[in-house]
Amino acid sequence: MACWLFKSEPDAWSWDQQVAKGAEGEEWTGVRNYQARNHMRAMQLGDRGFFYHSNIGKEVVGIVEVCGLSAPDSTADDPRWDCVTVRAVEPLPKPVTLEAIKAEPRLAGMVLVTNSRLSVQPVSEAEWRTICEMGGL
């Protein structure tokens, strides 16, 4: 199982909206970056990801699971853009802020720290465990 991080502005798509979609999940649409798209193309069913509120809050708030493989993005007119479907798994008992992530030496190499603009990014197993620990899981 690979691990990922999905960034969303909470005023556009929030953790609460993701949770409300239930087991069927929701397409992770609107990604218009080739590197982020390629990450979604590499995802497998059951892969886990952090749900990260960007711009407002700037914190990891929950865990999602890939429940639908990469397919054409229904919001795109261009066939180059794909998306996966994700469903909410569980909230983090304690959201993990970007400030706390940057302050944690074990996360110094995390893509969120080194390339903060990438909307869909890989997370190493060690980074996954560290953020889960920081979030109370």
Any chance you could write out the topology, listing elements then pairs?
Layout lengths: L2 E6 L6 H6 L5 E2 L6 H9 L5 E6 L5 E14 L9 E16 H6 L7 H4 L5 E4 L1 H10 L3
Parallel strand pairs: 1-3
Antiparallel strand pairs: 1-6, 2-5, 3-4, 4-5
Q: What can you see in these coordinates?
A:
By secondary structure, this protein is α+β, with helices and mostly antiparallel strands. About 25% of the residues lie in helices and about 35% in strands. It has a single domain (about 5-135), classed as ph1033 like fold. It is built from five helices and six strands; from the N terminus they run E-H-E-H-E-E-E-H-H-E-H. The protein has a six-stranded mixed sheet with strand order 2-5-4-3-1-6. A hairpin with a 5-residue loop joins strand 3 and strand 4 (about 60-70).
What descriptive keywords fit this protein?
ph1033 like fold, PUA-like_sf, alpha+beta, 6-stranded mixed beta sheet, 137 residues, 5hmC_binding
What's the quick description here?
It comes from Cereibacter sphaeroides (strain ATCC 17023 / DSM 158 / JCM 6121 / CCUG 31486 / LMG 2827 / NBRC 12203 / NCIMB 8253 / ATH 2.4.1.) (Rhodobacter sphaeroides). This is EVE domain-containing protein. Helix content is 26%, strand content 35%.
The outline comes out as: globular
Q: What composes the largest sheet?
A: 6 strands, mixed
What is the CA-based Rg, rounded?
A: 14 Å
Named CATH topology: ph1033 like fold
**CATH homology-level superfamily:** ph1033 like domains
Total DSSP helices: 5
InterPro entries: 5hmC_binding, EVE_domain, PUA-like_sf, THYN1-like_EVE
Organism: Cereibacter sphaeroides (strain ATCC 17023 / DSM 158 / JCM 6121 / CCUG 31486 / LMG 2827 / NBRC 12203 / NCIMB 8253 / ATH 2.4.1.) (Rhodobacter sphaeroides)
Pfam families: EVE
Protein name: EVE domain-containing protein
